[in-house]
Write a structure and sequence with these properties.
By secondary structure, this protein is α/β, with parallel strands linked by helices. Helix content is 34%, strand content 23%. It has an 8-stranded mixed β-sheet with strand order 1-2-4-3-5-6-7-8, with helices on both faces.
Amino acid sequence: MSKVEITTNDGMCPSYAYRPAGSGRWPAVLVFMDGLGIRPAMLEIGERLATHGYFVLLPDLYYRSGPYEPMNPHTVFADPEQRKVLMDKFVALATPANIMSDTRAFLDYFAAQHDVKPGGIGTTGYCMGGLMSLTAAGTYPDRIMAMASYHGGRLATDAPDSPHLLAPKIKARVYVAGAIEDQSFPDDMKARLEAALTTAGVDHTVETYPAKHGWVFRDTPVYDAAAAERHWQTMLALFDAKL
């Protein structure tokens, strides 16, 4: 892993780049972090993806808020003060519009790397990053060939920037996995997303796992080992097929 600083329209975004062992041109994957930010459990996604032959970029989407210590997944949502800081200082600045502006810089970074395979890339995202992953597929359809979202929330709402509204532009194969216990992705939202993707003719799978929101990361109280492993199987199958 190497830490890189990527210049965006709003500053310098600290990012983590993972290259597979050996030499070659590697297919690229952009990872959109979850709402708890950069920490060891998040960085493990990049590490493991690289062992499967992918060049991974994992940017810190909270860079606009300044440096921060790793958050405690066991207390940040339970403690009203910690939750308020998270939402007001960090999440409020990580808007879809801001992150899509950043994504252009992330794509340019991939394009400038001599050991990245030319052509389309893959994206994956978690929690808020799942929303960003889907939004990116519709914002940069000529660059993103495979897109995954795990326990992403608010994927099909009445908001003007709801990701499902971008379905007609998406060219990527889409894989969305929600949780059965997730207030941010209830059954009616799942159906709405499914309908939008189907109507647009997008190659897609939308399903829910028997787990709770946030199940992928081992440092959370809702970590589910079986569901986390299934996440790896489905994501690698998607990227292996399309990238």
